[in-house]
Design a protein that fits this description.
The strands form two sheets. The chain has a six-stranded mixed beta sheet. A five-stranded parallel beta sheet has the order 7-6-8-9-10. It has 373 residues and is an alpha/beta fold. It has two domains: 162 residues, no CATH class; 197 residues, Rossmann fold (3-Layer(aba) Sandwich), CATH 3.40.50. The radius of gyration is 21 Å and the shape is globular. It starts with 9 loop residues before the first strand and ends with a helix. This is Glycosyl transferase CAP10 domain-containing protein. Keywords: Coiled coil. It holds the Pfam family Glyco_transf_90. It comes from Lolium multiflorum (Italian ryegrass).
């Protein structure tokens, strides 16, 4: 635990059903506060079920606990984080935006889902623009900058409609042109990483349009459950323009199959990633983690107690509405879902092999398509 401190933004300790936080460094915007808020809501939802804990939490993006630096995984310091990749050992936890990201006009996940579902019904998939849509900030991210070349240029049509999001101007405009639900107007949506994974993933998946998912090494709690060809269409990160064009051409020529991918991806986001299951994931994760502690957690000398009121009362007019919308107002009336057994090595390999085969087949079809006169 002490070795994990150099990675952490805060330390959160639960003792006897009460939570305490020791802050080490300031997180970007309110990532740390809304993460702590989420854990407090878990404790309200399942009172008395969250065990005594002692966790170190990092609020930046890429994983930092390098597997290559430790002879065995159990030697690594336990660091909770929003995402990881195969080379890192960070513990993946739901990101802060499930409880809202008010700085960019994003409401908590449950009311946001309701807005997206209403928008999905307003414009049926066949009536949407027959292109692939993405809107975001490409600055400082080379892969996003490269993808912007897939806009119509020099008479070349890549079937992509890509828009640069200037957050400074967007805030001056009251975020009126940044509504996520109103972006569900295209038949295809593109997901692409930023500094690591992007919180936009779940909103893009919920849009009922097939997601063209630029293959990425980063995993969060959602992407680990997605299946290529079922929930999304993979896009080759090394040939993005050609890959996007082929995916859109294929989808427009096979609308029934394409629409099914969109529906299955959206259903995964709305059902499998509902807040009920997010909270159950959190409870199971923290319970299993607590079983590994070899000492009884105690309150750090510099920690302060936090509760729903201590975070919500001092919040300003920008942040308080998200807290009120995401507050758990009563305890759950049922037990959490049953934790399934872990995949065996053989099962994990079988799934990885199937996905790799699918990717190879799609890449082969893309190249054959590009070679036609």
């Amino acid at each position: 635990m002490e070795r994990a401190r150099k990675y952490a933004y805060f330390r959160l300790v639960v003792v006897g059903g009460r939570a305490y936080v020791e802050t080490y460094q300031t997180a970007f915007q309110m990532r740390d506060v809304f993460t702590q808020w989420g854990i407090l809501q878990l404790m309200r939802r399942y009172p008395g079920r969250v065990p005594d804990l002692d966790i170190m939490f990092a609020c930046d993006d890429p994983g930092q606990v390098r597997a290559a630096e430790f002879a065995t995984p159990s030697d690594a310091p336990p660091v909770f984080r929003y995402c990881k990749d195969k080379s890192t050992l960070d513990i993946v936890f739901p990101d802060w935006s499930f409880w809202g990201w008010p700085e960019v006009g994003i409401r908590p996940w449950t009311p946001m889902l309701a807005e997206i579902e209403r928008q999905n019904k307003r414009v049926p998939w066949p009536q949407r623009e027959p292109f692939a849509f993405w809107k975001g900030n490409p600055d400082r991210y080379r892969i996003r900058h490269d993808m912007m070349k897939c806009n119509v240029s020099n008479g070349k049509e890549w079937n992509a409609r890509l828009f640069n999001q200037d957050w400074g101007k967007a805030r001056q405009n009251g975020l009126k042109d940044s509504s996520i639900p109103k972006q569900c107007l295209y038949r295809y949506k593109i997901y692409i990483e930023g500094n690591a994974w992007s919180v936009s993933e779940k909103y893009i998946m919920a849009c009922d349009s097939p997601v063209l998912f630029v293959v990425t090494p980063f995993q969060d709690i959602m992407s680990r459950g997605l299946v290529a060809g079922k929930h999304y269409w993979p896009i080759d990160r090394n040939r993005m323009c050609e890959s996007i064009k082929f995916a859109v051409d294929w989808g427009n020529q096979h609308p029934v199959e394409a629409q099914l991918i969109g529906e299955q991806g959206s259903r995964f986001a709305t059902e499998e990633m509902s807040m009920d299951y997010v909270y159950d994931y959190m409870l199971h994760l923290l319970t299993e983690y607590a079983k590994l502690l070899r000492y009884k957690p105690t309150v750090p000398e510099k920690a302060v107690e936090i509760c729903t009121h201590s975070l919500a009362c001092p919040a300003d007019d920008q942040h308080r509405p998200c807290m009120m919308d995401s507050m758990e107002r009563r305890a759950a009336d049922s037990d959490p879902c049953t934790l399934p057994p872990p995949f065996t090595t053989a099962q994990a390999k079988e799934m990885a092999d199937k996905e790799e085969e699918l990717l190879r087949n799609i890449q082969k079809r893309e190249k054959e398509h590009a070679a036609r006169p």
